[in-house]
Design a protein that fits this description.
Layout lengths: L2 E7 L6 H7 L3 E7 L5 E2 L12 E7 L1 E7 L4 E6 L5 E2 H9 L4 E2 L9 E7 L4 H13 L5 E6 L6 E6 L7 H11 L4 E7 L10
Antiparallel strand pairs: 1-6, 1-8, 2-3, 2-4, 5-6, 7-12, 9-11, 9-12, 10-11
Helix pairs in contact: 3-4
């Protein structure tokens, strides 16, 4: 499960309930009845080789807001991944914007970085993040399908903000941009889209 605290602008007493209703997002997953694991792709279960069953499941177990602080508090259901881009689309319908200056990339996440396409560029990003102590753990891979860098991170006690991360990326190369952030990436999806 991922617990997300999303700072937003435009949240009011008049639209807060509708915003939460708009965050009733669902996703298709594949579940194994034998070992209760969830996967992003169909096929036999990697653990027990049993059949995987396709399901549509709500992404969030809990959705709440703190109006006076302009925060959304979200908790995902077990094994359900959520993309920052999905949240942005769902919020935009209600004229709500995520505040990138305050958005912390806490816990474990995968950041998709556009502009970095080679192993050398991936190593430069990993080195800069490690030297800058942005995260406790950092691993960077180039996705062979999309030709984008996938940065697997685990934040420490103080998680960096999206804007701090983007600043660190721009110091390496101005063309590097965070294309998306994904929380709860299943293990079979670390290098696949």
């Amino acid at each position: 499960k991922a617990e997300l605290v999303i700072p937003v602008t435009g949240l009011t007493a008049d639209n807060a309930t509708k915003v939460l209703e708009g965050l009733a997002l669902t996703s298709h997953i594949y579940s194994c009845a034998g070992c209760t694991e969830h996967f992003a792709i169909a096929g036999p279960c990697p653990g027990c080789q049993g059949d995987l069953k396709e399901e549509s499941k709500e992404i969030f177990f809990k959705r709440d807001y703190v109006l006076d602080q302009g925060l959304l508090k979200l908790q995902t259901n077990e094994g359900m991944r959520v993309r920052l881009s999905e949240l942005e689309r769902a919020l935009k319908v209600h004229s709500i914007m995520i505040d990138a200056q305050k958005l912390s990339i806490a816990g474990t996440a995968t950041m998709i970085v556009a502009g970095a396409t080679t192993d050398e560029q991936a190593m430069a990003i990993q080195k800069a993040f490690q030297e800058g102590k942005l995260f406790q753990r950092v691993s960077v891979l180039i996705d062979p399908t999309s030709k984008q860098a996938r940065i697997l991170v685990a934040a420490g006690a103080t998680a960096p903000t999206k804007s701090t991360i983007e600043m660190a990326l721009s110091k390496i190369d101005a063309k590097y941009k965070i294309a998306d952030v994904i929380w709860n990436v299943p293990s079979d999806e670390t290098v696949k889209k």
